[in-house]
Write a structure and sequence with these properties.
single chain; 151 residues; mainly beta; BH3618-like; 7-stranded mixed barrel
Length: 151
Amino acid sequence: MTIETARFGEIEVEDDRMITLQEGLLGFPEHRRFLLLEHRPGSPLKWLQSVDQPELAFMVVNPHEFFLDYEVDLGDELAAEMGLHCPEQAAVLVIVSVQERQRLTANLLGPVVINTQTGAGRQVVLDSECYTTRHLLAAAVPQTCAACTAA
C-alpha cells in the first residue's frame, strides 16, 4: 500500500504494519489507522503516522527506554478485550511533545498500547498519581518516577 505523508512524502508499506486504534487518540477519535515510522536510524523517537491524513503524525517513544519503573496496568478486562494474554504481546508508546526551549516531554498518563500480534491498539488513561502528561525526557538517561519511589 502507498501512503502519502506530509513529513516523509510518499512511502510504500506492507498492510500488516497497520495499527488500528479502535477509539482513535484523545482529541482525534475519527483517526484510527496509523503506521509506526522511524524518526531516523538509531533514534528512540518514532512517528505514529495517520494513514488517512498526511499531516497528522505524533512523535512517540517507548517509555521503558527513559523511565525504568514505568508500568501500565490495563486490568484483566481491558487486556482481554484487546486480546492481550501476556505482557510480551503489548507494545507501549507514549506521545512526545516539544515544549519551550525545545525540551521534549512524554505523556506517561495516556500511553498507547498495541497488540503486536494483531496491530489493534488503544490509548488508555492511567489512574496513577505517579504520572503526568509532561515528564521531561532526558536524552538517553533512564529515570525513575520520583512520586513512585517515594511511596
